[in-house]
Every structure is written in C-alpha cells, then in structure tokens.
Amino acid sequence: MIAEPTLLSRSVQKENSVVDVSSCASVHHVSSERNENRQKTVRGKRKARECSENAKRKHSKSSNGSLGRAENEQLKNGDVEAVTLFEVVSMGRNAMQAVVDDWIDAYTGDRDSALLDLISFFIQCSGCKGMVTAEMFQSKKGTDVMSKMVEDLDEDTGLQYKKFLAFPWILTVTWPLDMDSGEYPLIMSGLYWKRFRSHFCEFVSVLVAQCQNCVIFDGYLLNTLISLLTELSDSRVRAFRHTCTLAAVKLLSALVNVALNLSVSVDNSQRLYEVELAKMASKRASPRLDRIQRKISELQDRKCEIENMMDAIFKGVFLKRYRDVIPEIRAICMEELTVWMKLYSSVFLNDSYLKYVGWMMHDKQPDVRLKCVLGLQALYQDQSSSKMDLFTIRFKERMISMTLDKDHEVAIQAMRLLMVISQSCEDVLSPDDHKNVFQFVYCSHRPLATTAGEFLYNRLLSNHELSKPRDGASDQERHRELVLARVRALIHFHTENELHQHVLYLVDSLWDSAGALLKDWTGLTSLLLPHTSCQEQALSSAEEAFVIELILASVRQAAEGPPLSGRGAGKKVINTKEKKLQIDDCTKLTEHFIKVLPELLSKYSEDAEKLASLLKIPQYFQTDTCDHENSQCVRALLAELEAAVDRHTDAGLLEAAARSYQSLCAQDLPWHSLARPSFDRLIQHWTDTLGTRLGESLSDGCFTANEDSTLEFLSTLKKLNAFNVAQDLSKWSLYELGTRLLDVEIKHSGLPMEVTIEALRCMCSCILWKLNTFGEGLTSRAFMCLSDVLIAHNYQLQMWDSSAGTPLLYTPDPKLQKALLSFVVEHVFTSPEQDTHSSKVMASGPGRTTTDTFCFQSRKLSESECGDGRLEDLHRRRNLLAAYCKLIVHSVLEMSMATELFKQYVKFYNDFGDIIKETLNRTRQMDKMESARTLVQCLQQLYLRLKQEQDRGNTCSSRVQTYSSIKELARRFSLTFGWDQIKSRESLAMIHRDGIEFVFKGFVQQSEKHSPPYISYLTILSEFSSKLLKPDKKTIYSYLQKFAGEQVINNREESWMPLIYYRASLMGTAEGEDAISFISSDTNKQPSLSNRSRSPSVRQVNSEGDQRFLSPSLEPKGNELLKSSEDSKVQQAPLSREQLSSSLVSDKVLRSSDEVDVDTVDIDG
Q1: CA–CA gap between residue 698 and residue 693 (Å, rounded)
Q2: Which residues lie closer than 8 Å to 446 by C-beta, 6 or more apart?
Q3: Across 69-73, 261-265, 805-809, 1146-1150, which has the greatest mean pLDDT?
Q4: SCD domain spans which residues (predicted)?
Q5: What are residue 1160's phi and psi, to 5 degrees?
Q6: Is 247 exposed, middle or buried (0-12, 13-18, 19+ CB in 10 A)?
Q7: Are 234 and 241 in contact (CB under 8 A)?
Q8: DSSP notation for 440-484
Q9: Range among 120-129, 851-860, 1137-1146, 1155-1164 rated most confident
Q10: Which one, of 1009, 780, 960, lies nearest residue 878 by Cα?
Q11: Greater confidence, 601 or 574?
C-alpha cells in the first residue's frame, strides 16, 4: 500500500526555483514532465526511483547529506540500508536522533533540497502512491496564487491532484483514484504500524527540539511546514487529513515546549538583570546590563514568534478539524488540546479554549468523549481548578450525567473525574450530587461500581475527622473508635438509601478500596461484643444487624471473591498471587471466628434473623488449616448450633444451620470425629421425638393431638425436612414416617394442612435422594413419564368443555424446559464407540501373531454379543428423542427449544435423521416464520461457537462442529423446503434478511475499511439462495446493497470473497466461476471464519483426514456409493407394538455406519 512519492530531479527543482511562475513555458514544462512520468510503467517507475535514490545517496555522501549518520548506524547494526526519511523513521527510535541531526546538517547546506525531503516524508506517511512536484513561487499577485489552490480530478490521466501554496513553493500532489478507499499507516493494524505512529510523532517532536536554537527562527522552515500541514489537513482525502492533522497538533505541542523553555530563559535573564541592577553604581557594569537587556528582548521576540506560529496552527488546523467527520481526528484534537492547557496554562487554560472540550463531551463517539474526560482529569489534578471555575459551573451537569454513559470506560473515567473534582474543589458537588453518584456502588458493571466505591471511601470513610482520639486512650481503644466511626458512617449511607438494601454488593464495591476495614474482623466483632470502656458508644439493634450482615458479606467475599450474580459473565480465573491472598484471608477468618463465633451465637440466641446470618459463617471456613488444637472451640460451636436449631424453626435459620453442619461434617476435615456424632445425635433425637409424638397422637387410626403437641410435631418435621435437603437422612426411616402420616390423611383425614404439606415435602426429599442413587434406566423412565403427563395435560386443554368450568392451566417454566433439553442432549446425542475400524486393521495387519489372532477372534465374539445391546440402546435413545419432539410438536415446549436438536441433524443423520426431519416439517406446518427463525438461530449459534473456539486457538475441539459441517447443515436445511418455492418465499426471505443483518451489524459503509468479522457466514447463507424466486433474489440483493454499499460489494480483495460468493448466488453471474478458480488456487489454505470462506457451490469432503475443496463438476454422482451401500445394508430386528407406538414416527430400517446417503458428503463432525 505504501509507495514512495516521486520527486522531480534536483535539476528540475533548481530550475523551477529561479523561474517565475507567471511564465507559461515553465509551467508547461513542469506539467509535461509530470504527464510523461505518469505514462511510465511500474517497472520503469521503480528503476527511475532507484536511480534517483542512488543519486541522492551519492549526493549525501559527498556533501554530508541528510541521512549519512543514520544509514551508517543502521548498517553497523546489520539492518537494510535506508534511503528516505520514511524508511529510516519506520526502523525505530534508535536512529531518530541521528536522522534529525543529519537532516539539520543537510538543511544548513541546501535548505531547499532538505525541505523537499521533509515535505516528501509527510506525503509518504499519508500512504500516498503518487508523486510530488514543486515550483518556486515568486509572483506578487494574489489572484495567480488563488487560481492554483485546487483539488480536482484530471480526466485525461484518471488521477486526482491537489495544487497548493507551501511558501515559497507551489506543490502539486497527484494520487490514484482508489487511494481514498485504501489503508494508510495510521490506521493499518499490527504492532509494526502502531510503533510507526509513535515514531512519527516522536520525529516531529525531536525535529523541533533539535532546531529550537538554530533554524527554527529563520522564517523559512516552519512557515513552509505550517503551510504544508494546513493545506493537506484540509484535503478531502482522509489519509492526508488524518496524517497531517496529527503532525500539525504534535508540531504545536513541540512548539509549546519551546515556548516554555523560552519563558524559563526570560525569567532567568530577568533575575540576572535585577541582580546586576541591584549592585552599587561603582560595581555595576553598564555593558553587561545592555547585553542582558538585549538578550531579554531577543528571547521575548522569539517567544512572541513561537506564539504566533502556535496561533496559526490552532486557527488553520484545530478549528477546522476538531469537528471532523472522522472520530479519530476529533479524538486527536481533544487529546492534544488538553495537553496544551496543562503545559502552557498561561496561554491555553482559559474559557476561550476550554469551551471546545465542553462541547466535545457531547460527541457521539465514545473515544472522543473519553479523551475529553481524561484530559480534564489531568487539568483538575494539576491544581488549576481556579482558572476553570466558569467551565466547572457551565458543564458540571454534563460531567455528572456522563457517569450514565453507555460506554463503560467513559462512565468509569467520568466517575474518576468527579472524584478528582471533589478533592480539588470542595464546594462544587453538592450533597445531592454526591448521593446520586454514590448510588453507583449498586450498579451491575463491577469496574464502575468499584470506582464509585473508591469515591465513597475517599469521601466518607477516609475522613480524619471521623474519630478524634480521646485523651489517654490506648492504641486498641483508638482503633476500635476509628472502626466504629467508619462503620457508623457506612450505616448512615446504607440506611439513608431507600432504594437498595444489598449489603453484599456494597461490600463488593468497597472491597478494592476499603479492604483493610472489611477484613478487620477483629475490630468488627469487637463492636458486637461487650466492651467496658465504651458503653456509651454501644450499637443499637439495627446497627448490630447491619454489622452482622457486613461481616457475613466480607467473609463471603474473602472466601469466594467476585463476581457476584449479575456482575460478571462467568467465574473469574484468579492468578497464583490472588489465590495465595485468598487462602491467607480464609485462614485468618477461620482462626478468628472459630473462637469468637460461639460467643456471638450465645449473645444473639433469641434473635432468629441475626442467628441466621451468623450460622452461615462456618460454611466459609478453610478446612485445610483446621487442626485438633481448636477442638474445645469446635465443641462450643457445635453446642451453640444445636441450641440454635432446638430453639428456632425459622426456615432460613434451619437452612443455614444444615449447610454449616454439612461443612463441618466433611470426611476430610479433622473435626469430622467431633461434628458427625453431634449431628447424628441431633437427627436421632428428632426422629425419636417425631415417632413418639406420632404414636401418642394416633388413636384408632385418627390424628387426635392437641394444639401444643401439633406445634411440637410440626416444628420437628420442619427441622428434619430442612436437614434432609442438605444431607441424605434415609437411614433414619423418614420415608416410613411420612407414609404413616399420609395414610392417616387418606383413610381418616383430619390431619392439619401444614402437617400434610411437611409430610409431602419429607417424602419428596427421600424420593429424590433415592433417585440420585439409581441408574440411568429409572431416570429415562421418569423422563418418559413426565413427557406423557405434559402431553396428556395439553390434550386435556384442547378437548376441554367450557361448560365444565375453568381448566387447570400449566406451562413448564424455563428451568424445567432447560432441564428437559439438557437431559436429551446428555442421554440421546452420545457418540457410540466405533471399534469396527480398529478391528479391521487388526485382522488384516501385517505381522499378526497367534496371540493377536486369538485376541481378534475373542473380540469378534464379544462384538457379536454386544450387537443386540447397542441396537437396544439406540432404540431407547430414539424413544427419548421422539418423546421430546412430541413436546415441541404439541406446543408444550417453545419451538426455539428445538434448536439443539436441529444442530445434530447431520452428525446423527443415520440414527435420528428421520425423527429430526419430521419434527422440522411439523414445526413448519405450525408456524413457518417461527420455524425459519429456529433454523437461523441454530446456524448462527454454531457459527459463533466455532468463531469463539478459533479465536481461542482451539481448532481441534471435538465438541465444536467444523465450518464445513455447518455449511453442510445449511444445505440440508435448504433441501427441506422442497420444490414449491412460493410456499416458502417468506421464510426464505426472512432467513436471508436476518443473515445479512447478522453479518453487517455495526458495519459503517464510509468509515469501515476492514471486512465485518462474521462475513464468512455469507457463504453458509448462500446455501439458501437456490430456493429463492428470481424477484426475491433481486429484492435480497437490494437489501444487501443497503447494508454493504455498492463500493463494498464491488471490492475484490480476498477478505471480501464471501461477499462475492453470496452476490454470485443471488445474481447468477459468472463471478461464481471466478470464486471457484480462486479456491482452486488456494486449496492448501485452512478456511478461516474471519476472511477466508469458500464458495457456496463448493462442498468440503473429508478423506482420511485430508480436507479438499472440489467444484460441483468434480463431486461424485453417488450412484456407485448407493450401489455399494445397498449391498452393505443389514436387517434390523422387528420392534414391538408398544415400542413403535411411543415413537413420533415409525422407525425406518437402520443403515450401517458405512452407508453413505446420496444427498450427503462425508464431513468431519
């Protein structure tokens, strides 16, 4: 993409430098010279360029040219010899200083030639493929100058050109028409071009820094450079505009540094002048004073000149480009403007310049808003807020509202900006502003919540005035008072907030900033325990409840860590350092609470709500650090646990106690010998009590207990149910006790409703524990029974007589639907063991011994014995799949639940193809559009999963279908639409429309130069193009043009090949043949989902692990395969009537694994 711009030879340039531009002969000479160069071939241009570069190199060597030292330095390092400034700067910053020094030497010797080299460098950095010509400007007439300032198209040569004044030259830049749609260095991807951007900016800074004491004030260099950058930054070509805007603002930043140095020199000279003036008249040297005064005047003149240059760049470039259509250019302008304000505040830090930052905080692009916010952070941190009072008042509301920005990074940085403003300007944010901002500690995005937590901690909890230590107080008392003051400030914030009561999310937000306070469990628990010296500071009951919740949340955070529910997509992978810190925190909390928790449980033994929170703490103990030394503390803890569950029947408390018992009774825990007997005694006591009360309450088979006995009976049953959920209590015969109670209710009734409900819960838990120990046969039967019940209920609703009353309505909740789907995926779509291939290899392999023969024969016998078992297992799986499909066909489950079934259509075609195909046809009869959406969802989910695996580098995962198999699945789906295209035209149009929207989502025609990431999906989508009617193809093609644009559709680059294939499938043009020829020349490349997709008419086949791409003319017709498959068919044993009736469709004769269907190709599933 990047080619060197061609300059005219030095002789032509020097000739132009002495000829008046008004002379028509000279202008015609330059024009004819340029036209002659345009007509050269590419090879001729390259040879001419090499000759020119060689001549330039000879000139530089003989006259200490612009690149001598840099080239020598690069050659010593073994690098390729560089000629142009662009090549040297691209090599890196090692040669930057030498490049600038060499260029200054060349400029001192021949400033015209060196300056043209610099102009060529900026043109070349813009990615210009054309050439630059220059002619000297000497005319005094302004009309002649204005007539030459053009940017237009030369119809004769087909080139664009721009002619402008860069005093003292008139420069003409020509470039091809396609340059505006191509890439240029600043936007090209890759580490090399990212480094080039930094090298480019550094070159401009180093150039000005090295020239600040010499040629920068000659009135020639910077004037020409500013004119060049101003004109090119106003070009219609994005490459020129972007590159030269960046160069111009970096040039202004470098001039700011020069102005700062001059200001320092003026101040130093002024102080020296004052010192000299303060001397006595006899010791004062008048010539020295005159020299200092002249130096001060000279420095001030230079400073004024630099400021004039800065003003010219600001007005000529910044004011035109800060609202450019390209967001990158706007972001550059805002970033550099804030840098100027920070460095040179005396000139730029005022309302005249700050208003641009305030305006651009409303920009539509998040990058621009982010640069504004980051720049304002630096300004407010620099203690310059006194100059920004008017700006702060004017744009305060906007800065606060940016915390709600849809871009998370902008919102986070806006929160940090408010934090800085709050620290530097005390009275800017009102209490209501702080209250609204602090609410973000409860937001779902954790980085924003932690930033708000940091703001909350700095504002409320780190204030030194929270606790003033009492005179004579010890360090321990001072620490307790500080913790109490911070906790009360947190309580005040929490109770003042009426919208949120989520202590767990508050702790998660404060964890990074206030971790020391939240992990201070010694200080927090000391607030709950009695303290003799601080009785007047005792907490209220509500405050104690908050502290207990705070302790529990901090214990959970230390043991498990983020993310919480709703604050993260999945489990966070922690590194070794974080893991070690987590283990240390768990060890500390275990050592502390094993001693303190019994005392806390004893204190709050009457408060069920507080006890429920405290009883959850043992679940987070670190079992690896437990030892026998704390056995006395464990006994005390178990005693308090037993007392708590004996005293209370609250459901939450019983559940927490059951989970804590489960943690303490773990087999690998040293406390198992103490906790397990205590648990067993407790359960045995409850069962004995329940049996005794049941015997006393039954009289002649009737329940005759009084109110007190009934309450005791009910509370004991609730406790057993709560513990039966956490652990299996089958050995205590709870099922038999529940059966006796239900027998009483069934035979004689009179059992209280609450007792009946608890008895049912008890039996349900026992059944679930029993099912958990059974094998797969029972679970499959339970699945079939549940499916039959749901279908029968659905049939009842359809046949319901309205005169019979209101029917019982029931819809399976999403959790049950997901459980049914998970069961089918796990138990139906399982790949059977394929031992046939290995057996054949073993039977015919060379060098087979007698032992091998015996083993083979034995294995053959075992395979024949297992054949019936495999056939029976296949039939069982078909019945399960048919039962699930009936749920979808009868509208018991949503149609989208069939997505996972359709994904397996090709992979399990021989086993379940008929059932899945029939399900697809039935759903299409129910709702054509919804069925088509299900197919689209199926293909897109498979594609996205494969794309994610490829991005992670997992290209060989057996759990993910290959690209060719997804494409084959799309082809099979298209075949199910049949030959009646009129019936399916709406469904097919929706499939294409949804696929186009999926591919071009977020794609902007003008600004995007790269292909969309999901463009290869068009190749999959093209499988449905053959089913479209001709008018529909035209409509779909118009819809495609709406998203992609005519310019993108006609793009012939390799990354856009899937779009060409899809367009060919819609238009029916000869581009399909071009696509096939492209593939045939690229058969050894692995298809990539990002930019290498295959033709829609090309099918991928798998032969012994090698993937080949064949055109349709090379595909096998299938006759020979069909003939061989018919010979290899095996007869299946007939199925019973009961088995056949349970299936959705009649089972077809199963084909062997070696059979190949006529309409299919082998794929790598």
Answers
A1: 9
A2: 508, 509, 562, 563, 564, 567, 568
A3: 261-265
A4: 318-402
A5: -120, 165
A6: buried
A7: yes
A8: GGGSS-HHHHHHHHHHHIIIIIS-TTS-PPPTT--HHHHHHHHHH
A9: 120-129
A10: 780
A11: 601
Position 613 pLDDT exceeds 60: yes
Write out the DSSP string of 393-411. Answer: HHHHHHHHHGGG-SSHHHH
Contact present, 200 and 89 (Cβ < 8 Å): yes
Yes or no: say if 792 and 784 are a contact pair by the CB < 8 Å rule.
no
Strands 169-175 and 159-166, sheet pairing: antiparallel
Averaged pLDDT for residues 788-798: 73
CA angle 841, 844, 849 (to 5 degrees): 100
- Dig out the tokens for 895 from the structure: 């149609």
Q: Whose CA is closest to 693, among 678, 713, 679, 677?
A: 713
Can you give the C-alpha Rg of the chain in angstroms? Answer: 41
| Average pLDDT over every residue of 265-284 | 83
Token duo for residue 893: 């489950």
Cα–Cα distance list, 1095 to 940, 1060, 1118 (Å): 18, 9, 21
Structural element, H or E, at residue 757:
helix 753-773
CA dist 210 and 212 (Å) reads 6
CA-CA distance, 1019 to 1097, in Å (whole number)? 9
**511 has a pLDDT exceeding 80:** yes
3-state SS class at 1107: strand
Assess whether the previous peptide bond of 832 is cis (omega < 30° from 0).
no
What is the token pair recorded at 84? 């142009």
Tell whether the model's pLDDT for residue 1123 goes beyond 70: no
Which tokens hold the place of 1155? 């059979």
Q: 212-216, 309-313, 428-432, 719-723: which has the minimum mean pLDDT?
A: 212-216
Residue type, 194: K
Contact 751, 745 (CB under 8 A): yes
Report the alpha-carbon angle 1025-1075-984, nearest 5. 5
Identify residue 829 by its one-letter amino acid code: F
User: What's the pLDDT at 40?
Assistant: 37
- Residues 6+ positions from 844 with CB-CB distance below 8 Å: none
Q: Which of 505, 508, 513, 452 is nearest to 486 (CA)?
A: 513
- What is the C-alpha separation between 344 and 257, in angstroms, rounded? 8
What's the pTM value of the predicted model, to 2 decimals? 0.66
Q: What is the pLDDT of residues 588-605, one digit of tens each?
A: 999 899 999 999 999 999
Cβ contacts of residue 730 below 8 Å, gap of 6+?
Answer: 766, 769, 770
- Tell me how far apart the alpha carbons of residues 336 and 246 are, in angstroms, rounded to a whole number: 9
**What is the spatial distance between Cα 471 and Cα 220, in angstroms, rounded to a whole number?**
74
Residue 18 tokens read as 């002495």
Element (H, E) at 753: helix 753-773
Amino acid at residue number 475 = D
33 residue type, one letter: E
- Write the CB contacts of 38 (distance below 8 Å, at least 6 apart in sequence): 157, 159, 174
Top-ranked range on mean pLDDT: pick from 307-321, 487-501, 819-833: 307-321
User: Rounded to an integer, what distance in angstroms lies between the CA atom of residue 751 and that of residue 91?
Assistant: 90
Which H/E stretch holds residue 160? strand 159-166
Measured between alpha carbons, how far is 360 from 1051 in angstroms, rounded to an integer?
35
Q: What is the mean pLDDT of residues 418-441?
A: 91
Q: State the distance between the two ends of the chain, measured CA to CA, in whole angstroms.
A: 40
Give the C-alpha separation, 972 to 982, whole Å.
19
Tokens of residue 76, six digits? 């010593």
Side-chain-side CA neighbours of 889 within 13 Å: the count stands at 20
Give the per-residue pLDDT at 364.
94
Percent of the chain with pLDDT over 90: 26
Would you say 1145 and 1163 are in contact if contact means Cβ atoms under 8 Å apart?
no
Give per-residue pLDDT as tens, 163-205: 766 666 677 776 655 544 457 888 888 888 888 888 899 999 9
